[in-house]
Fold this sequence. Notes:
InterPro entries: Myb/SANT-like_dom. This is Myb/SANT-like domain-containing protein. The structure is a single chain. Helix content is 65%, strand content 2%. By secondary structure, the protein is mainly α. The chain has a two-stranded antiparallel sheet. It starts with a helix and ends in a 7-residue tail after the last helix. Mean pLDDT is 81; it is low at 100-106.
Amino acid sequence: MVGLEGWRVITDKFNEKFPVAHFSKKQEQEKEKELKTNYKALRDAKRDSGNGWNESLCMILTEPRVWEKLIANHPKVAKFRKKPFPLFYQLEALYEGEEEGGSGRKRKQSHIGSALEGYVEYKKSQTNKTLQAFEERKRSEKEFSVEKCVDQVVSMVELTDK
Length: 162
């Protein structure tokens, strides 16, 4: 567990790195809690036999009937049925030492900050990809707009009104 001072330092560093975002300590704590819950759900599901864990995608790839059983045993893993969890190994490094051999010791703020920073970078990357896709779609829509098509048809001399 990170102390009050640790969370203040983490929040300050995030706000230095992303000055427009204005992160609060509570936001940082809630995101860390969410990431930890997601990590534990996938970790536990991954440990069950018969689940196909894909190391490079950081996701479970298995048959639908196995997914049904998996979701019944681990309901929180349902949201990862068709999407990866790219922070799995970073969070494994962070949390496994805490739970198995940590004997309640406090996590280093730099480890939590690193995991949260990884999440923010991932979301930033996803947002950029989404924006690029929107721009491409917009360009495509302009290229094949009704107005342009009508202009093309009108300019074709071999077409008649008949």
